[in-house]
């Protein structure tokens, strides 16, 4: 579920230092205004040495949806209720210290661009207690929310809804737990089929290792921040957009200072940050640097958005790899490298106002959009950053050109920007599951010689672990070689199956 947002009017301004720390951000172990502390699910705490029916790696929205579906299945009687036969033994392992959803991008005024009906339960079971409407009802805001006449809640409220759901499952979630590997256990089965897996994790505070045994393992670890190779990944003043709300108030702690900030990227997060920095720091100078020629609007029209329908996965999965690739590339405007039209219009108006008030020499503007531009170098000396950028296609470092009326406007030449902070809004990688699963490589079928070079982008190519192919069934289960894994056991993937299942997260494990 992508957190695309619309920044509304004056609410994009600062709250405190620009980032709200109200009850929405209360720890789920304490009593907050939504009263989560006494919530309990039908899933029960297990001992570490038990054989679990399911261990979920990661506890973001995908795993939370699994937890909710399990609870609802027990509630309906389709799975055993506590007090009768034992409920399924389930454990969730999460690296973060508490549940959080895109916490680094919870900007003031940001709204969802996905209907609240696509919540943790409504489309599967509208009578579930975990619907967004029931969350509003339990918090005494249902009537007032209705008066807003919108399907699009504030992003910070939706994150609070997710944390409200997550609070029901605190007994079966281990936070501060980073999973290192998933390994098959030796079997005494005469057929030699693996029936259980060992999930090895590390406590992120103490470093202590713990192992859990499970018949089924679900990997839903989300994306890992991707910073371009031209930028250092360990410099304190080069950060990823996912850290924006956490780190920027610490790094830039003087609201009135004339900070110089460069934002790299062309998508929703880049545009939001570019807009928000200008509001938080009125005397700042900002640059939005992007390889794209234009800021492109996202497509949320109803026909195109049918790609997110659950039934569309069936249609997509049965197509050829080439056909899937073509279709998904054509649907990128729904989710990748695009910006909400309202924000594009706001930024364009700001650029126009600068042209009207200051003139056509864009180098004199405090806020600039450097389109069709690449980052080609960074010189770091202490806190001082010197960022070298170059227009795409420029062959000579000093190929100066003149703008309208013979005024040099900065186009067509290499340029050095002195900045105090660089924010890379450059997306995420989704490859960590391959490293995590290295020990199960021998259970996978051998990869064909040609399968690794079909000419598609990496996210659509067949994944490999060593010389074995990682393929995923329609139900998101990993396809093992025949006879290698016993019936009723397996590994399941979420959030890294776009090439076969499309740009949505749906699991058929339940």
Descriptive notes:
By secondary structure, the chain is an alpha/beta fold. It is 21% helix and 20% strand. It contains eleven helices and 21 strands. Strands 2, 3, 5, 6, 7, 8 and 21 form a seven-stranded mixed β-sheet that branches. The protein has a five-stranded parallel β-sheet with strand order 10-17-11-12-13. Strand 14 (373-381) and strand 15 form a beta hairpin.
Helix content: 10-25%
Radius of gyration: 25 Å
Characterize the overall form: globular
Helix/strand structural class: alpha/beta
Report how far the terminal alpha carbons are from each other: 19 Å
Helix segment count? 11
Taking pLDDT < 50 over at least 5 consecutive residues as the criterion, the unreliable ranges are: 1-37, 398-410, 451-457, 505-510
Largest sheet: 7 strands, mixed
What is the beta-strand fraction?
Answer: 15-25%
Secondary structure: number of strands: 21
Q: Whole-number average pLDDT? A: 84
Structural features:
510 residues, alpha/beta, 11 helices, 21 strands, 21% helix, 20% strand, globular
Can I get a quick summary?
This protein is an alpha/beta fold and 510 residues long. It has eleven helices and 21 strands. It starts with a strand and ends in a 9-residue tail after the last helix.
Topology (SSEs and partners):
Layout: E1 5-7, E2 51-57, H1 61-76, E3 90-93, E4 110-112, H2 132-138, H3 142-147, H4 155-167, E5 173-174, E6 177-184, E7 197-203, E8 209-219, E9 224-225, E10 238-240, H5 244-251, E11 260-264, H6 268-280, E12 285-289, H7 310-317, H8 321-330, H9 341-358, E13 367-370, E14 373-381, E15 384-391, E16 415-419, E17 421-424, E18 428-429, H10 432-436, E19 463-465, E20 468-470, E21 490-493, H11 498-501
Parallel strand pairs: 2-3, 2-8, 3-5, 8-21, 10-17, 11-12, 11-17, 12-13
Antiparallel strand pairs: 1-4, 6-7, 7-8, 9-18, 14-15, 15-16, 19-20
């Amino acid at each position: 579920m992508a957190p695309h947002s619309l920044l509304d009017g004056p609410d994009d301004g600062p709250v405190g230092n620009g980032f709200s720390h109200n009850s929405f951000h209360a720890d789920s172990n304490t009593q907050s205004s939504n009263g989560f502390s006494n919530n309990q699910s039908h899933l029960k705490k297990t001992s570490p040495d038990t054989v679990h029916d399911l261990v979920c790696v990661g506890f973001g929205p995908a795993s939370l949806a699994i937890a909710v579906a399990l609870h609802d299945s027990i509630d309906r009687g389709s799975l055993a209720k506590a007090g009768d036969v034992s409920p399924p033994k389930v454990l969730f392992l999460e690296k973060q210290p508490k549940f959080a959803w895109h916490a680094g991008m919870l900007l003031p005024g940001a709204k969802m661009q996905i209907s609240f009906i696509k919540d943790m339960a409504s489309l599967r079971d509208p009578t579930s207690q975990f619907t967004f409407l029931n969350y509003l009802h339990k918090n005494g805001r249902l009537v007032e929310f209705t008066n807003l006449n919108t399907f699009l809640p504030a992003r910070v409220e939706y994150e609070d809804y997710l944390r409200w759901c997550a609070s029901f499952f605190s007994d079966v979630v281990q936070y501060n737990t980073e999973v290192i590997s998933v390994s098959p256990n030796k079997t005494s089965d005469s057929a030699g089929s693996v029936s259980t897996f060992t999930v090895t994790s590390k406590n992120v505070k103490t470093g202590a290792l713990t192992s859990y045994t499970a018949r089924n393992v679900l990997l839903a670890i989300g994306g890992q921040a991707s910073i371009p190779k031209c930028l250092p990944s360990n410099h304190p003043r080069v950060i990823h957009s996912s850290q924006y709300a956490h780190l920027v108030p610490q790094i830039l702690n003087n609201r009135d200072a004339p900070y110089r900030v460069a934002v790299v990227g062309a998508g929703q997060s880049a545009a939001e940050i570019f807009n928000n920095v200008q509001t938080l720091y009125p005397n700042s100078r900002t640059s939005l640097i992007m390889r794209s020629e234009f800021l492109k609007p996202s497509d949320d029209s109803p026909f195109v958005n049918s790609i997110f329908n659950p039934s569309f996965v069936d249609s997509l999965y049965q197509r050829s790899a080439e056909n899937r690739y073509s279709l998904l590339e054509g649907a990128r405007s729904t989710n990748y490298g695009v910006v909400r039209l309202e924000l594009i219009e706001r930024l364009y108006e700001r650029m126009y106002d600068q042209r009207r008030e200051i003139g056509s020499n864009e180098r004199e503007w405090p806020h600039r959009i450097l389109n069709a531009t690449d980052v080609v170098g960074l010189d770091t000396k202490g806190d001082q950053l010197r960022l070298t950028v170059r227009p795409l296609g420029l062959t000579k470092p000093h190929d100066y050109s003149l703008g309208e009326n013979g005024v040099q406007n900065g186009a067509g030449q290499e340029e050095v920007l002195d900045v105090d902070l660089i924010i890379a809004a450059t997306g995420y990688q989704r490859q960590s599951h391959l490293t995590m699963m290295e020990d199960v490589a021998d259970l996978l079928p051998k990869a064909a010689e040609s399968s690794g070079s079909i000419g598609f982008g990496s996210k659509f190519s067949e994944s490999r672990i060593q010389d074995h192919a990682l393929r995923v069934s329609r139900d998101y289960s990993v396809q093992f070689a025949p006879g290698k894994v016993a019936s009723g056991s397996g590994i399941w993937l979420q959030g890294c199956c776009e090439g076969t299942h499309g740009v949505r997260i749906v699991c058929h494990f339940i």
